[in-house]
UniProtKB/TrEMBL annotation:
Protein name per its UniProtKB record: dolichyl-phosphate-mannose--protein mannosyltransferase
Transmembrane segments: 152-172, 184-201, 207-229, 241-258, 264-287, 308-327, 394-413, 425-446, 452-471, 480-501
Gene Ontology CC, one term: endoplasmic reticulum
Family named by the database record: Belongs to the TMTC family.
Organism: Tursiops truncatus
GO biological-process terms attached to the record: endoplasmic reticulum unfolded protein response
C-alpha cells in the first residue's frame, strides 16, 4: 500500500501514463537490484513514514509547513538594526543613493568602491546592490526593517523552492502523460527542506542585511537547476529542443553569480545531475570496463544518451564565457587580502597550508553538524594555525576525511543505483557550491564564514535525510528515530530564534562572540568600538588594549585607542600608539591625521603639519584632514594657508559646517567683513539650517551695521 501511494496509483496505470528517467543499472544483483529504480526509491521514501505523517504530504501543505517554520525561525530579526558589515554595505555605500548613476553599479564592487582600486575586494555583486537600492527607494530611506523583511521572505521562499529541488534530487524526473512532474519522494523532500529551513548556520545570511547576496544567489541557483531539469524533460519529447532551457539555465546561473560569486557553481551541479541521472553513469562499472579493456565501453550509457555531449558543451562554453567576462570586469587581478584575514594562505610551507585548509573544512563540517558554536567573525587568531602534524586538532582532519571517503566509496561502489545517485548528488550539492570558498583556486578573505555554508547546507540536509531513511530501514525502534529527528528540528528552531535575537543589535552580536572566539582580536575591537560609541570610554579602553595584546599589529585598534587617549589628554601614550600604527601600515591615512592632531596638541607643529600632509598624500580626498590642517595654520597665524585648507575641505565636502564656520570667524577676526559675509552667505546656501553658521554670519552683519539683515537671521535661529 505504501509503494502504490508513493507512485500515485496502480502499476498498470503508471506503465501507460508515466515516463521516467530513473532506470535500474544492469550490474545490480539479486531480485531487489533488478526491480525498477522507481520502486526502490518509493521504498526508501516510505521508510520515513513514521517521521512524516501522510496528512501533510500534499505539495501545498508541505510547502506551507516549510514556509511557516522558516518564518518562525527568523522572524525575531525583522526589526533589528544595521549591524557589522551592514553599515558599510548599506548606510555608507554611495551606490545606494539616488544621485549616483545606475551605470556606476556595474563598475563598483559590493561596497561601492571602484573595482580597479587596489583596496577593492573584487566582490562584484551589482544585482544585489540594485536590490538594496530599490529597497531604499521603495521604503523611503535607510530603514533596516524593510531590508530584514526582504531577507526573511527570501529565506522562506528558498526553503519552499527546495521542496521541489529535493523532490527531483531524491525522486528523479518522472512525468505524467500531461507533462506534470510527479514527486516520488514526498517524505524525503519535505524532511530535507524542513532541516534546511531551521538550520541555525543560516542566521547570518538571514539576520544580517548583507546576507541578501547569499539569499539572492541561492534563489537563482535553484531556479537555474529547475530550468535545467526542464531542458531534460524537453529532450525526451519528440520535435522539441532543449537548447532554450539550457541557455536559460546558464543565464540564471550568471544572474546568481551577479548576486554573489558562488552562484555560478550551479552549472557544475547541473552537469553532475545530467551525467548521473540522464546519462546513467556508473563510475564503478566504467572503471571495471577500462581496467579490463572491455570492448563494450563504447556502449556506455553516457555515450549513448542523445544530446548529453551537446548540453555539456553548452554548459562548459557558457560557464567559461561568464567567468571570463567576470574576470575582465574585476580588472583581471585577484583581490588583495592581508595575513590577518586568512593566515593559512600566507604560510610559507605547503604542508602547513594544506593541513590548515583541511582543518577549516572540518570546522565548516562541524558547524553543519552542530551549529551551536556560531560567531560573526572567525579571523584574527580565532583559529590558531596548526604548525605541525603533532597538533591534536589533526584528529578533526582525519575524522572529516574518514567520513568523506566512506560516503564517496558508497556513492561510487554501492550495488544499489538509487543509493549511488542520492549520495553522489548530495555530496555534489554539498561540495560544489563550497568550492569558491575552499582556497583551492584562489585566496579568500576569511578563515571560516557561516554565510558561505548557506547553499552547501542543502547538500548536508539531503545526506542527513537519506541517513535517517537508512536508520529507519534497519532498526525496529522507529519511534525513537522519529523522536530524535523531531528533537533536532525543535532544537535547531530554538537556536535560530536565540541567534536571530543576538543579531538584532551590535552589542548583543559582539558580546555573543566573546565566549566562542576569545582569542579573536576583532571581536574585542568591535565590543570596544560599540562601548566607545555609547560613551563608555573606560570599558572601551580595556577591550581595545586586549585587541592590541592579541594582535600587536592591529592598527585599527591602535588608532581608536589613540583617539580615546587623546580625548582623555593622555597624549604621550596616544602618540606612541599612533606612531606605531603608521609604522606598521605607512598608508594608514586616518592614523596619520590623528597623529597630527596629537602632535598639534603637544605643540609639535612642524611634525603635525608633516603628519597631515602624509595623510593627504595617501588619501587625496580627505576633507577632515584639510580642516585639521587649517586649524594648525590658524594656530600659527598662517591665515592664508588656513583659509586655503578650509576651502579645500568645503570643496571636497560642501556640507562641512566646521570648515565654513572657521573661515567666517577667521575673516571676521582679521577685519575682512565683506569677504566673511560672502563666505557666510555661500555656506548658508549649501547648509541653510545650520545655526552656528547663522550666528557667525549675524555677528559679521552686526559689525557691518546691517542690523535689519542681522535681525532676520537671528530670528531664524
Amino acid at each position: 500500500m505504501i509503494v502504490s501511494r508513493a507512485l500515485g496509483g496502480p502499476r498498470k496505470e503508471q506503465s501507460t501514463q508515466v515516463s521516467t528517467f530513473w532506470v535500474s543499472s544492469q550490474h545490480n544483483a539479486g531480485a531487489r537490484g533488478r526491480r525498477p529504480a522507481v520502486f526502490r526509491m518509493a521504498e526508501w521514501d516510505a521508510d520515513l513514514d513514521h517521521i512524516i505523517p501522510s496528512s501533510i504530504l500534499p505539495p501545498l501543505w508541505a510547502k506551507l509547513l516549510v514556509g511557516f517554520v522558516s518564518l518562525v525561525c527568523f522572524a525575531r530579526s525583522y526589526d533589528g538594526d544595521f549591524v557589522f558589515d551592514d553599515s558599510e554595505a548599506i548606510v555608507n555605500n554611495k551606490d545606494l543613493r539616488a544621485e549616483t548613476p545606475l551605470g556606476d553599479l556595474w563598475h563598483h564592487d559590493f561596497w561601492g568602491n571602484q573595482l580597479s582600486s587596489n583596496t577593492s575586494h573584487k566582490s562584484y555583486r551589482p544585482l544585489t546592490v540594485l536590490v538594496f537600492r530599490m529597497n531604499c527607494y521603495l521604503s523611503g530611506g535607510f530603514h533596516p526593517l524593510s531590508f530584514h523583511v526582504v531577507n526573511i521572505l527570501l529565506h522562506s521562499g528558498i526553503s519552499i523552492l527546495l521542496v521541489d529541488v529535493f523532490s527531483v534530487l531524491f525522486g528523479g524526473l518522472q512525468y505524467t502523460s500531461k507533462g506534470r512532474r510527479l514527486n516520488l519522494a514526498p517524505r524525503s523532500s519535505l524532511l530535507a527542506a524542513l532541516l534546511f529551513a531551521v538550520h541555525p548556520v543560516h542566521t547570518e545570511c538571514v539576520a544580517a542585511v548583507v546576507g541578501c547576496a547569499d539569499l539572492l544567489a541561492a534563489l537563482f541557483f535553484l531556479l537555474s537547476f529547475l530550468g535545467y531539469c526542464k531542458a531534460l524533460r524537453e529532450t525526451n519529447k519528440e520535435g522539441t529542443q532543449s537548447t532554450f532551457w539550457v541557455l536559460l539555465s546558464i543565464l540564471l546561473g550568471a544572474v546568481a553569480m551577479l548576486c554573489k560569486e558562488q552562484g555560478i557553481t550551479v552549472l557544475g551541479l547541473n552537469a553532475v545531475f545530467d551525467i548521473l541521472v540522464i546519462g546513467k553513469l556508473n563510475v564503478l562499472e566504467l572503471v571495471r570496463k577500462v581496467l579490463h579493456k572491455d570492448r563494450s565501453l563504447e556502449n556506455t550509457g553516457v555515450l549513448r544518451t542523445e544530446g548529453l555531449l551537446f548540453r555539456m558543451s553548452l554548459l562548459a562554453l557558457g560557464g567559461t564565457g561568464v567567468l571570463y567576462v567576470r574576470w575582465k570586469i574585476m580588472g583581471t587581478g585577484p583581490p588583495a587580502f592581508t595575513e590577518v584575514d586568512n593566515p593559512a594562505s600566507f604560510a610559507s610551507s605547503m604542508l602547513v597550508r594544506a593541513i590548515n585548509y583541511n582543518y577549516y573544512y572540518s570546522l565548516n563540517a562541524w558547524l553543519l553538524l552542530c551549529p551551536w558554536w556560531l560567531c560573526f567573525d572567525w579571523s584574527m587568531g580565532c583559529i590558531p594555525l596548526i604548525k605541525s602534524v603533532g597538533d591534536w586538532r589533526v584528529i578533526a582532519l582525519a575524522a572529516l576525511w574518514f567520513c568523506l571517503i566512506g560516503l564517496i566509496c558508497q556513492a561510487l561502489c554501492s550495488e544499489d543505483s538509487h543509493k549511488r545517485r542520492i549520495l553522489t548528488l548530495g555530496l555534489g550539492l554539498l561540495i560544489i557550491p563550497f568550492l569558491p570558498a575552499s582556497n583551492l583556486f584562489f585566496r579568500v578573505g576569511f578563515v571560516v564564514a557561516e554565510r558561505v555554508l548557506y547553499l552547501p547546507s542543502a547538500g548536508y540536509c539531503m545526506l542527513l535525510t537519506f541517513g535517517f531513511g537508512v536508520l529507519s530501514k534497519h532498526t525496529k525502534k522507529k519511534k525513537l528515530i522519529a523522536a530524535f529527528v523531531l528533537g533536532i528540528l525543535f532544537i535547531n528552531t530554538l537556536r535560530c530564534v536565540i541567534r536571530s535575537g543576538e543579531w538584532r543589535n551590535e552589542e548583543q552580536l559582539f558580546r555573543s562572540a566573546l565566549s566562542v572566539c576569545p582569542l579573536n582580536a576583532k571581536v574585542h575591537y568591535n565590543v570596544g568600538k560599540n562601548l566607545a560609541d555609547k560613551g563608555n570610554q573606560t570599558a572601551a579602553i580595556r577591550y581595545y588594549r586586549e585587541a592590541v595584546r592579541l594582535n600587536p599589529k592591529y592598527v585599527h585598534a591602535m588608532n581608536n585607542l589613540g583617539n580615546i587617549l587623546k580625548e582623555r589628554n593622555e597624549l604621550q601614550e596616544a602618540e606612541e600608539l599612533l606612531s606605531l600604527a603608521v609604522q606598521i601600515q605607512p598608508d594608514f591615512a586616518a592614523a596619520w591625521m590623528n597623529l597630527g592632531i596629537v602632535q598639534n596638541s603637544l605643540k609639535r607643529f612642524q611634525a603635525a603639519e608633516q603628519s597631515y600632509r602624509t595623510a593627504i598624500k595617501h588619501r587625496r580626498k580627505y576633507p577632515d584632514c584639510y580642516y585639521n590642517l587649517g586649524r594648525l595654520y590658524a594656530d600659527l597665524n598662517r591665515h592664508v594657508d588656513a583659509l586655503n585648507a578650509w576651502r579645500n575641505a568645503t570643496v571636497l565636502k560642501p556640507e562641512h559646517s566646521l570648515a565654513w564656520n572657521n573661515m567666517i570667524i577667521l575673516l571676521d577676526n582679521t577685519g575682512n567683513l565683506a569677504q566673511a559675509e560672502a563666505v557666510g552667505r555661500e555656506a548658508l546656501e549649501l547648509i541653510p539650517n545650520d545655526h552656528s553658521l547663522m550666528f557667525s554670519l549675524a555677528n559679521v552683519l552686526g559689525k557691518s551695521q546691517k542690523y535689519k539683515l542681522c535681525f532676520i537671521i537671528v530670528g531664524d535661529i
